[in-house]
Fold this protein.
Amino acid sequence: MSQSSKIHRAQREAKQEKQAKKVVNWIFGILILLAVIFAIWTIALQ
């Protein structure tokens, strides 16, 4: 494998890892938001 191919692969892997972390953070944020909404909804019904 050529040197430039290795460099491009490493850059692509780094970019994908960064995007994956961003997606995981969004998913956790949405889950926390839904938990807060559910808690407020549960309290409002009582």
User: Anything to note?
Assistant: The first helix runs from residue 3 to 45.
